[in-house]
Task: structure prediction
Amino acid sequence: MVTKIFIDNDALSDFLAEQMIELILSKPNALICFASGNSPRNTAACFVQKVKERKVDLSAFHFIGLDEWVGVPAPMHGSCHNDFKNWLFDPLQIEDSRYHLFNGMSSNLDEECSMMDQYIQEHGGIDMMVVGIGMNGHIGFNEPGSNFDAKSHVVPLDEITSSVGQKYFSQPMKLEYGITLGFHHLLSTKKVYLIANGAAKAEVIQKAVEGEVTTAFPASVMQLHKSGCILVDEAAASLLTR
Ligand code: F6R
Result:
């Protein structure tokens, strides 16, 4: 795993969007997995701009969402689905057939997990993941205690995740469960970027980069990934000691 420090989030986002473009140019049918939330928003905007400016052909690429809130309808402001629609699918006119997302409203969440695992397998594995880090060290909804070998699964949400998650919604929400890809997927993805910006993320980034590898702090899993890359701005890197 390597860590790269950028002067600010714009520089980080520009670098990462460029990595996405290069992947698609070298492998047009690449499968990319993205988190929602605040961290990847700017990267998505840079990616959209670069695709438009350079007329990158996205007709063969595939996209999956990292996770979804259980019980939150796709069109609702705050759902992961809604983020992807606003950031990528609408601006780039990406057709439904090019992406696969968890349906957090499904009455059969086990089936949702199996369908996601099957989709990944059928597309030859994930080429690139872009993930964030939560204030409890989660990645996706892999909360503290999550196994490093899990595939897609449904998770009871940690209290920190349920309360921090309120920031995405315009009304108070009961956020009890999430559905997420597991660390089996992360560890078998060819290239994983974990991104963070701002001083509020400095402590969790320090633990992820320099702390013990333990399921108690899920983002430490990044240290086990040979092609894992942590991208941070200077504020998020401020507690790193080496
Ligand atoms: C969202 C997700 C979460 C977030 C994390 C950080 O799809 O997977 O794990 O990446 O909670 O959220 P932000 O980026 O909003 O600080």
Observations:
- Helices lie at 9-26, 41-54, 80-89, 109-122, 159-164, 183-188, 202-210.
- The pocket of fructose -6-phosphate is lined by residues 35-39, 66-67, 80, 131-134, 138-140 (CB under 6 Å).
- The beta strands are 2-6, 31-34, 62-65, 67-69, 99-100, 128-131, 153-156, 177-180, 191-196, 228-233.
- The CA atoms of residues 143 and 236 lie 21 Å apart.
